[in-house]
Amino acid sequence: QVQLVESGGGLVQAGDSLRLSCAASGRTFSSLTMGWFRQAPGKEREFVTAIARSGGSTSYADSVKGRFTISRDNVKNTAYLQMTNLKPEDTAVYYCAARLFGIAAHSTLYDFWGQGTQVTVSS
């Protein structure tokens, strides 16, 4: 079993930056592909980004390309989501997720989930 704990959410203004962290435990971190998803009120959960086990490959949703960066530290067992130039439409609960195979964009393909952290961007 894998436990994921997100942190770093909060209330920011449009144009600000924020970094989310996802601490993992319960399994060798380097064996996990890590992803970030988000869910806004009244909307379905959507893919944001994912990073391969080695960190050598990433994927991003078009809505965040050029503004968000995913990274990982396989020594600290932590994945990060650096968000810059935040927009009000980025407001959502952000979830960290993990899976045992390669990068995927659909939430049903992820085996493990964190509890989520709220990000609110005011205009």
Descriptive labels:
mainly beta; globular; seven-stranded mixed β-sheet; 123 residues
Contiguous runs where pLDDT drops below 50 for at least 5 residues = none
The overall pLDDT, averaged over residues, is 97
Q: Indicate the overall shape.
A: globular
Cα separation of the termini:
40 Å
Helix content: under 10%
Largest sheet: 7 strands, mixed
> Which series of helices and strands comes N to C?
EEEEEEEEEEE
Short description:
With 123 residues, this protein is mainly β. The chain has strands at 3-7, 10-13, 18-25, 33-39, 46-51, 58-60, 68-73, 78-83, 92-99, 112-113, 117-122.
Structure write-up:
The structure is a single chain. This protein is mainly β. Helix content is 0%, strand content 50%. Strands 2, 4, 5, 6, 9, 10 and 11 form a seven-stranded mixed β-sheet that branches. The protein has a four-stranded antiparallel β-sheet with strand order 1-3-8-7, with no helix packed on it. The chain is globular and about 40 Å long. The mean pLDDT is 97.
What's the structural blueprint in terms of helices and strands?
Elements: E1 3-7, E2 10-13, E3 18-25, E4 33-39, E5 46-51, E6 58-60, E7 68-73, E8 78-83, E9 92-99, E10 112-113, E11 117-122
Parallel strand pairs: 2-11
Antiparallel strand pairs: 1-3, 3-8, 4-5, 4-9, 5-6, 7-8, 9-10, 9-11
